[in-house]
Write a structure and sequence with these properties.
The chain has two domains: 202 residues, Quinone Oxidoreductase, Chain A, domain 1 (Alpha-Beta Complex); 143 residues, Rossmann fold (3-Layer(aba) Sandwich). α13 links the parallel β17 and β18. Helix content is 29%, strand content 24%. The strands form four sheets. Strands 3, 5, 6, 9, 10, 17 and 18 form a seven-stranded mixed β-sheet that branches.
Length: 384
């Protein structure tokens, strides 16, 4: 095996990313080395590419980006117990401490000492990535190809947020149709929602939401070209779409102040609101009128449950309950990273899957799967 590999890195404290050769990661006693077959771009990666205020405060260049991926294990540390060379895997992107109150009470997704792959340590936009065994997730190569397996991590967010409610027979509003919002539309429909109404300010996203099963879609900017909410246009539209009544459940996925206000105004008295989108600045809410007097149940959620959400995600994808393929806008190579980021920043793509090179490759999971025997032929063995 070569001693260097291709990787996408934030090399300096400035906008942009670079594709360069870096040293192959070393495998510790509790780590596994995975050959990356496919990776997908998260909105977090776009923020880092732009080098916005959040990124400047959080990221310590140089660092390899990326946390959504699928690949094949080629080496394991001497103390690894549950992963073998040749396994086809993805990974939970949050490396938790395992010892705090949250970790020890089944709430690891809230661990205050969490390190995020591709944010706090080197990530998966590379030909190989070394990860601790305890974040590894096994995939079934016969049922989930790499381009779908790489979406499990973000899809799990939508699974967690959407399935926090019993949606059978309920009317659902989804505000914000980025990847998580579009995932949520598909999950809500698969869960037996009576109707799903989707809103966004980008028509491209709304068409994807419709493909995922939205019964009706709405763009407030088409009602108010100035970019506003058409004098509560989203609120009014959701109520009108639901035959003049507030909807039972609203999933707020945009993080915009207008979207959050609309969520509280459009839900029925006694209804439920989940806040999942992250605002870029503080948002003012009329708590009395929009929450207390309406007797609302409000959930503010982040991430996904480790690993509970993964099991639900596996069932939905392996069983074909939700089809994510319509949301894969492009499949590009690592060398196309600037093009990929530009498309996402312009709102012209939903999920973009990256491949290390054009050897990419056969899109079947079986093509990326390596048996232990094949791996050993190359001299790749358990690391002491």
């Amino acid at each position: 095996m070569a001693e260097t590999m291709k990787a996408i890195r934030k090399a300096a404290r400035e906008p942009g990313l670079v594709v360069e050769n870096v040293a192959l990661p070393r495998v510790g006693p509790n780590d596994v080395l995975v050959r990356v077959a496919a990776a997908s771009i998260c909105g977090t990666d776009v923020h880092i590419w732009k080098w916005d205020e959040w990124s400047q405060q959080r990221i310590r260049p140089p660092i390899i980006l990326g946390h959504e991926f699928a690949g094949t294990v080629v080496e394991i540390g001497g103390q690894v117990q549950h992963v073998r060379v040749g396994d086809y895997v993805s990974a939970e992107s949050h490396i938790t401490c395992g010892m705090c109150f949250q970790c020890r009470t089944g709430q690891a997704h809230m661990c205050p000492k969490t390190k995020v792959i591709g944010v706090d340590c080197d990530g998966v936009y590379a030909e190989y990535v070394a990860l601790p065994e305890n974040v590894i997730w096994h995939n079934d190569a016969r049922k989930i190809p790499p381009e779908i397996a790489t979406l499990q991590e973000p899809f799990g967010n939508a699974v967690y947020a959407t399935l926090a409610h019993d949606l059978a027979g309920q009317t659902v509003g989804v505000i914000g149709c980025g990847p998580i919002g579009c995932f949520a539309v598909g999950i809500a429909k698969a869960s037996g929602a009576a109707s799903v109404f989707a809103t966004d300010i980008v028509d491209f996203r709304l068409e994807l939401a419709k493909t995922m099963g939205a019964d009706a879609i709405y763009n407030p900017r088409n009602s108010d070209p100035s970019g506003g909410d058409g004098r509560n246009g989203t609120t009014n539209w959701l109520i009108e779409a639901n035959e003049g009544y507030g909807v039972d459940v609203v999933l707020e996925m945009s993080g915009s102040a207008q979207g959050i206000t609309s969520a509280f105004r459009a839900v029925r008295n006694g209804g439920r609101v989940t806040l999942f989108g992250i605002p870029s600045s503080p948002v003012e809410i009329d708590v009395a009128e929009n929450m207390i007097f309406k007797n609302l149940t409000v959930l503010a959620l982040n991430g996904r449950k480790i690993f509970e959400s993964w099991f639900k995600t596996r069932w939905m994808l392996e069983g074909g309950v939700v089809d994510l393929r319509p949301l894969i806008t492009r499949e590009l190579q690592f060398d196309d990273i600037e093009k990929a980021m530009g498309l996402l920043a312009a709102g012209e793509a939903c999920k973009i899957v990256l491949r290390p090179s054009e050897v990419a490759h056969d899109t079947s999971a079986a093509a990326s799967h390596v048996s232990p025997e094949d791996a050993n032929v190359t001299g790749i063995v358990r690391h002491p």
